[in-house]
């Protein structure tokens, strides 16, 4: 589901959101597959790939290897080895790792609801529509650390067959991202709804927001559907802890849509609140984060790094009114890959993954509420010094693709991957973890002793596609308190 700098290559590569592709097509209902024989929904576990011993606290990093059809799992904090294991999700095996043609699954969006790890699959049962896989922690309780859970342990033919895994057919084109609506337990799924293989000026079909009743409940899952009010919904962010209010970054028409998800608690559909327009066309509007005040910050940049086009950050309140914006200054335009709100900061502060050229890295943005200004006020230099942007084994420089902060804002995971990769060759991406020390001000944040979690996983072997790391694009933190 995702390379975004050189459009002409898209026809021959897989369709990551930063490497677009898939055909159109929608339906109006989804259906949940049968539950396997192992594990009960909601059961807490102390062992296995998603377990945490009683009385302990654990932070587990789940990482979508979106090109290589796998989810990797690491222990970032708490007991257990760094590399916990991985889930093989190659439902349509890619001969020799070649991602051209029809052999695409592409796990992308991730969500953890306290019992299950949910994974959006971009192109199953076919290229035109995606599905949802749900893995209960209980079903993975008996696996030893370091195990790659083989497909045959939970999949047979074209259906789930064990470990309590559930398949929900979403029957929509490119469901890309999701969050959990805490009061109801529903998943809120942003549907891109357009063909990522065509030029972005053709991304005009209206997107949707699905409220999918928790797949932990067996039986049919009829989604609650809301028109997003925009085209090309690329990512979703919750604007409050319960995800009652959510925002979508919409790349098809350069807008931000805000929706009210509170009706889900009464078994009704989410409802649109407002749409904010960014007054520049032909730009990438893909990543956003809440501001902690009920509003949202969104990044906008040209589709190709340019010395003549600016990148900007736009700040809207919960009614889509402009609070402020800033031009992200530099010798060339920035590429905004991800944003994350620093919780508890006095005045909104965000981490931003900057992916362009030699300036790539993780920077800190600060907003002044009274003045409506946003500025770059710091950088996590320790990641630069640790070599986070240099591939071990590959020649392609790495760049930050994804960010995830823990609930306290002191633990940070960073997914890094190559800017370009071979459609049938290895990639040398990785994932890093660091604790943050903010001192007296969040802008003074220091990354303490960055650790490359990816170094603990099986080394990339050019002859073994199941070890490749071409696009580590999505992170989810699983925080378990014993």
Automatic annotation (TrEMBL):
Region named Disordered:
18-45
- Where composition is biased (Low complexity), the residues are 21-32
What is the name listed in the Swiss-Prot or TrEMBL entry for this protein? Uncharacterized protein
What species is given as this protein's source?
A: Enhygromyxa salina
Taxonomy-wise, where does this protein's organism fall, top ranks first? Bacteria, Pseudomonadati, Myxococcota, Polyangia, Nannocystales
């Amino acid at each position: 589901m995702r390379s975004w700098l050189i459009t002409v290559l898209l026809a021959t590569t897989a369709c990551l959101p930063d490497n677009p592709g898939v055909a159109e097509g929608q339906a109006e209902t989804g259906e949940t597959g049968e539950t396997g024989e192992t594990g009960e929904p909601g059961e807490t576990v102390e062992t296995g790939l998603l377990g945490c011993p009683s009385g302990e606290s654990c932070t587990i990093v789940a990482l979508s290897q979106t090109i290589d059809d796998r989810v990797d799992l690491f222990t970032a904090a708490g007991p257990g080895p760094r590399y916990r294991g991985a889930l093989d999700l190659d439902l349509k095996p890619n001969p020799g790792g070649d991602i051209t043609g029809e052999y695409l699954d592409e796990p992308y969006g991730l969500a953890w609801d306290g019992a299950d790890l949910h994974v959006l699959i971009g192109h199953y049962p076919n290229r035109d529509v995606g599905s949802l896989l749900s893995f209960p922690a209980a079903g993975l309780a008996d696996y030893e650390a370091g195990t790659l859970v083989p497909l045959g342990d939970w999949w047979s033919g074209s259906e789930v067959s064990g470990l309590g895994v559930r398949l929900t057919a979403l029957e929509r084109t490119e469901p890309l991202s999701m969050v959990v609506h805490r009061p109801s337990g529903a998943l809120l799924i942003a549907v891109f709804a357009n063909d990522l293989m065509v030029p972005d000026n053709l991304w005009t079909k209206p997107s949707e927001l699905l409220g999918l009743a928790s797949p932990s409940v067996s039986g049919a899952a009829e989604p609650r559907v809301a028109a997003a009010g925009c085209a090309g919904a690329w990512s979703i962010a919750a604007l409050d802890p319960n995800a009652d209010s959510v925002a979508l970054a919409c790349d098809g028409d350069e807008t931000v849509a805000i929706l009210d998800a509170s009706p889900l608690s009464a078994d009704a559909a989410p409802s649109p609140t407002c749409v904010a327009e960014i007054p520049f066309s032909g730009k990438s509007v893909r990543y956003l984060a809440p501001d902690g005040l009920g509003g949202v910050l969104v990044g906008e940049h040209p589709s190709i790094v340019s010395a003549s086009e600016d990148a900007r950050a736009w700040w809207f309140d919960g009614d889509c009114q402009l609070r402020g914006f800033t031009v992200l200054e530099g010798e060339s335009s920035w590429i905004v890959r991800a944003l994350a709100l620093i919780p508890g900061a006095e005045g909104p502060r965000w981490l931003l993954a900057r992916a362009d050229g030699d300036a790539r890295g993780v920077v800190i943005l600060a907003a002044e509420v009274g003045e409506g200004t946003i500025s770059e006020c710091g950088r996590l230099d320790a990641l630069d010094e640790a070599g986070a942007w240099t591939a071990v084994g590959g020649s392609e420089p790495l760049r930050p693709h994804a960010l995830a902060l823990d609930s306290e804002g002191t633990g940070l995971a960073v997914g890094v991957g190559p800017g370009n990769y071979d459609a049938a060759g290895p990639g040398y991406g990785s994932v890093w973890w660091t604790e943050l020390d903010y001192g007296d001000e969040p802008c003074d944040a220091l990354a303490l002793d960055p650790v490359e979690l990816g170094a603990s996983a099986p080394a990339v072997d050019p002859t073994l596609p199941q070890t490749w790391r071409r696009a580590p694009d999505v992170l989810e933190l699983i925080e378990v308190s014993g």
